[in-house]
Amino acid sequence: MLGFPCNQFVGQEPGSDADVKAFCTTSYGVTFPMFSKIDVNSSARPPLYTWLTEQATKPDGDRAGAVLGQPEPVAADERPEVVALGDGILSRLVL
Fold this sequence. Notes:
This protein has 95 residues and is mainly alpha-helical. It is built from three helices and two strands.
């Protein structure tokens, strides 16, 4: 799981990247990687986020949300297009 904070929806994530991470960690016990805040509704939308959302909307379940199948795990080095998409945004990861 990856976290992509965004402040474009009624200002729900104000503050710095560190503030967002601290809030998510303290309030919800988040342990997965949190990226820097991104714009999801503009031309500044990061390519990795675009690719991930395109994958999430492909029909791998039925209309009720039941999962119809699960793809086999693939190592990142077997998917060079994923590595290429992530190169730019991974440098923005908040640690």
